[in-house]
Design a protein that fits this description.
The complex is a heterodimer of chains A (455) and B (476). Chain A is α+β, with helices and mostly antiparallel strands. Chain A folds into two domains: 222 residues, PmbA/TldD superfamily (PmbA/TldD fold, 2-Layer Sandwich); 232 residues, no CATH class. Chain A contains nine helices and 20 strands. Chain B folds into two domains: 223 residues, PmbA/TldD fold; 245 residues, no CATH class. In chain B, the strands form five sheets. In chain B, strands 1, 2, 3, 4, 5, 6 and 7 form a seven-stranded mixed beta sheet that branches. The longest helix of chain B is centred in the first third of the chain and has 18 residues. Chain B is globular, with a radius of gyration of 24 Å. Classes of the chains: A alpha+beta (455), B alpha+beta (476). Strand 3 of chain A pairs parallel with strand 2 of chain B, so a sheet runs across the interface.
Chain lengths: 455, 476
């Protein structure tokens, strides 16, 4: 049983000894990584905390390539080096069974110089559980003060330390912290609003503001009636922009293009969007949930311009995908699939109130959405469902709340028809809808198609 | 597979009870996962995970706590329990009424789902060869983008509760997933589809699914849709939906809104609430032809289990019977709140996730029409065999299903005319009240259902008759 699990090994020992063990097999590439993480969650509903959670996870992972045959594993039994070696033996054997990936281009060669990045870890987070219930209460009270009857949501926070080592002269450790507060407030079941506060440094956590936003939108959505389908200009909140405009930015990924899950194939250098549209992947942005000083290959983080004035400038890459396309890594490894860090959308010049006033044609303000699905991602044909407060704007003023409409359009149309952009961004990340942290402004987009149920 | 961690679970129960909890359950779970991916015919990787851990749920001072860990030293375990109890007790002040679990009969049992070709006894070489064979069957078709994956799992669980349940189980499962994109260069048309097969058991399912033939046939159809499908007629049409669409309707428009935690608002900030409520139990919410069942006991099904994650014995749930909303999906928390009994629907996707009400295998029951018969009195309609895009609002009131392989029905007969992307966009009551018949034979598809925060992917089947008829749908 578990009596032999002493767990006296440190991550350093596990990683160093595993590297030595695997190197004896003369592989092409090895990446060994380990992490020790603590996370908490307070989940609430109907103004009550319904469950308090704490997760502790210690894990090691291995990326092993020999003769271009790629195998990976994650293991949790790191109680002894014998247990780890047993898994490594299985990895070596497993790797022999995998046919070579002929277009594999290797991992980065170190050593690298790393810039110091501030704002990755807040030491106060270790004792944050002492204050967490109060923070939830503040958010709930703010929602009620601004018109909500009840709210649901989560406050999640946690910290981790991790270490990465490769057989290409890369070795580094990181300390990370992050939090996420999501609140959805209600008057009646169809009258609701959402608020968010996400980041890494606790001084940017503002549950009160998120609760206020959720409460206000819920209150303003009171008495909403079914909207009329048709073409409208759409004023999309940062939350909605992060999802459905973000879909195009996330599509600047060679893996997505290779499998037909992006509409950006063969479009580098083309003007694919409004000239107002500029976007980056940026792992160095302060307080960005995925900010880091290097990717898993050890390549120092950078800001990568993906779209500039509507032109697709490039894709995110790891070393292997970059080599295949004759370019250089953008520090977005992802061992197999390049992955976004934080997405940044360049803000515009308008305040949110000015965007409303700019909306001369009938315009629909969408504050939140969910369930975005594609008919064909290679063409960007999609629909998504607005939820929470949705409002009809006419002659530059919000006229009334509406509901039961669906955005049914294409991603190319959305980015081509951006007509005005808010002058500031907010970091958005929530549940399944926006998993890549996205610093997004509100956007006014012309001629968006809205549909509704016909029976 | 030999379970570890049972002693730790037993010790955690003693430890938490000594610290004044009203209820505690502990589960030790161990996984053997293998995954193989081919992208456009090229092997991307082979991956495996060998992980395990313990999840603990407690009721204390009327509040609920959950903790998980994968290190089993005494100090580590004691600290994990101590910290979650502290946080849970602190949270109790933000509760208006205590959480009480429903009283259920304690269960004890051990079971193991058999596999003729266990994932553990099938070599990685053999698995990779299978995937290559499957992929090769479509390599000469006009499918410029394709990705195919095989994933197998053996999940072993030891569950013990402070009110006397003790269950051990071992369930192997297999999943195939693929995304294909067909292009017709002459027409400049493109169609995309994803395919999923899943079951409990082992690699014997590859033959049962006839996967090579299945995928090559589907790829050919997809290519034909890209090359030949015609625009959908507009106006008021009758629809007949195939088991793939019907199953999704059962899952999305009935299964999710029948989850008691959604009805009670527990999922409100994420997966949403429900257009159904407790007062609607016993009400007619669809036509008499609509009976929808969720059944975890179907042998070989992807959502199979004998006891749920709280130790409650599994049974079929009749969510809608002849159009009447009859039953919700309950775990002990939601059942306790409503003063009723659990319906054995508690599932957790991993040791580090709490058990919440979930579907298992959800389907619309069959009717008595023959396949040709179901089309006979349709003057103009669409047979939507399967879907590409779909979504539904977070109260499960308004849904949209876009057809992938769809045919014109004209003058009582199913034609061979392919129709491009017909759209069934309705409210749930509108949809359920418009069903007026179904065929005799049931079919099922596999899917991974998403819910919870953090996300809990739960393997499910959904299904229905070969044809279910839906009257008078306006297509714009």
């Amino acid at each position: 049983m578990d009596s032999e699990q002493t767990n006296t090994l440190t991550l350093d020992e596990i990683i160093d000894k595993s590297m030595q063990y695997l190197e004896k097999t003369n592989p092409d590439d090895i990446i060994v990584y380990g992490s020790d993480e603590i996370r908490f969650q307070l989940r609430f509903s109907k103004n009550d905390i319904i469950v308090s959670k704490r997760w502790a996870n210690v894990q090691a992972g291995f990326f092993y390539v020999k003769d271009k045959k790629i195998a990976t594993t994650d293991i949790s039994d790191i109680s002894s080096m014998e247990a780890v070696y047993k898994s490594l033996d299985e990895l070596i054997t497993f790797g022999k069974a995998i046919p070579p990936k002929d277009d594999y281009g290797g991992i980065a060669k170190g050593p690298f110089q790393y810039k110091k990045l501030s704002g990755l870890y807040d030491p106060d987070i270790v004792n944050f559980h002492e204050k967490a219930v109060d923070q939830v209460e503040e958010g709930l009270n703010a929602a009620i003060d601004h018109g909500a009857k009840h709210s649901a949501g989560i406050l999640v926070w946690g910290y981790s330390r991790s270490k990465i080592k490769t057989n290409n002269d890369v070795e580094f450790k990181t300390l990370n912290s992050s939090f996420e507060f999501l609140i959805r407030s209600f008057l009646e079941p169809t009258e609701s609003g959402q608020g968010l506060s996400v980041g890494r440094m606790l001084n940017s956590l503002n549950t009160q503001q998120a609760g206020q936003t959720a409460g206000e939108i819920a209150f303003q959505s009171k008495g909403g009636r079914k909207g009329e389908p048709g073409k409208y200009d759409a004023l999309l909140s940062p939350t909605v922009v992060a999802d459905i405009v973000g879909a195009t930015i996330r599509g600047a990924n060679p893996f997505s293009i290779d499998i037909g899950r992006s509409w950006l194939k063969d479009k580098i250098g083309d003007k694919v969007a409004s000239e107002k549209f500029t976007a980056y992947d940026d792992a160095t942005v302060p307080n960005g949930i995925r900010s880091r000083f290097a990717d898993i290959e050890g390549v120092p983080s950078q800001q990568t311009t993906l779209f500039e004035n509507g032109v697709l400038k490039g894709l995110i890459h790891n070393t292997s995908t970059a080599k295949k396309l004759g370019t250089t890594t953008t520090s977005n490894a992802g061992l197999i699939i390049p992955s976004n860090t934080n997405i940044l959308i360049e803000p515009g010049i308008f305040t949110f109130e000015e965007l409303i006033r700019e909306s001369k044609k009938p315009t629909i303000l969408v504050t939140s959405n969910w369930y975005t699905r594609t008919t064909n991602a290679a063409e960007g044909i999609f629909s998504t469902i607005p939820r929470d407060g949705m409002f009809l704007i006419e002659n530059g003023e919000i006229q009334r709340p509406i509901r039961e409409l669906r955005i049914t359009d294409t991603f190319p149309n959305l980015v081509k028809n951006i007509s005005a952009i808010q002058n500031k961004t907010r970091q958005i990340k929530w549940w399944l809808e926006v998993t890549i942290p996205t610093f997004a402004p509100a956007m006014l987009i012309e001629g968006v198609n809205f549909t509704t149920g016909t029976k | 597979m030999v379970l570890n961690g049972k002693d730790t679970c037993d010790k955690v129960i003693e430890l938490a009870l000594s610290q004044g909890v009203d209820y505690i359950e502990a589960r030790y779970e161990q996984y053997m996962n293998n995954q193989f991916i081919l992208k456009n015919g090229t092997p991307e990787l082979g991956a495996f995970d060998r992980t395990s851990g313990i999840g603990v749920r407690v009721l204390v001072e009327g509040a609920m706590g959950f903790t998980s860990f994968n290190v089993y030293t005494q100090d580590y375990v004691e600290n994990a329990v101590k910290q979650v109890l502290k946080l849970t007790r602190a949270s109790a002040r933000l509760r208006k009424q205590p959480i009480i679990f429903s009283e259920e009969k304690a269960s004890e049992g051990k079971y193991k789902v058999g596999a003729l070709k266990s994932p553990a006894d099938t070599s990685p070489e053999e698995k990779m060869d299978l995937l290559f064979t499957i992929d090769k069957s479509i390599s000469n078709l006009p499918i410029p983008f394709r990705i195919v994956m095989l994933m197998d799992t053996i999940r072993a669980i030891y569950l013990i509760t402070s009110d006397g349940s003790k269950i051990e189980s071992e369930i192997p499962s297999l999943n195939f997933f693929g995304i294909l994109t067909a292009v017709d260069p002459n027409r400049g048309a493109m169609e995309q589809a994803s395919y999923s097969k899943g079951a409990t058991g082992g690699y014997e399912w590859i033959d049962k699914w006839d996967l090579t033939n299945f995928l090559s046939t589907e790829a050919e159809i997809l290519s034909k849709v890209a090359a030949k499908a015609q625009e959908c007629p507009k106006g008021e049409l009758d629809f007949v939906v195939g088991p793939n669409v019907c199953g999704l309707i059962a899952h999305e428009n009935c299964g999710h809104p029948s989850e008691a935690d959604r009805i009670l608002g527990r999922e409100a900030a994420q997966a949403g609430e429900s257009y159904l409520n407790v007062d609607k139990l016993g009400e007619q919410i669809g036509s008499e032809y609509v009976t929808i069942i969720d059944d975890p006991t179907i042998s070989g099904s992807y959502g199979f289990y004998k006891f749920d994650s709280e130790g409650v014995k599994a049974r079929p749930r009749y969510l809608i019977k002849k159009g009447i909303f009859t039953e919700m999906l309950h775990n002990r928390e939601s059942a306790g709140f409503l003063g009723t009994s659990s319906t054995g629907a508690a599932r957790n996707s991993a040791y580090n996730r709490e058990p919440i009400p979930r579907m298992a295998n959800t389907y619309i029951s069959n009717g008595d029409f023959g396949f040709d018969e179901i089309f006979e009195d349709i003057k103009l309609g669409i047979y939507m065999k399967n879907f590409s895009e779909w979504n539904i609002d977070d109260r499960r009131f308004q849904s949209r299903y876009v057809g992938r392989e769809a045919y014109l029905i004209k003058d009582g007969e199913l034609s061979s005319t392919l129709i491009r992307r017909p759209v069934l966009e309705t409210t749930t009551p509108g949809l359920f009240s418009a069903i007026d018949g179904a065929t005799k034979i049931l079919e099922f598809d596999a899917a991974m259902c998403g819910k919870g925060d953090p996300m809990q992917g739960a393997p499910v089947w959904h299904g229905g008759p070969e044809g279910t008829r839906i009257r008078s749908i306006v297509v714009r």
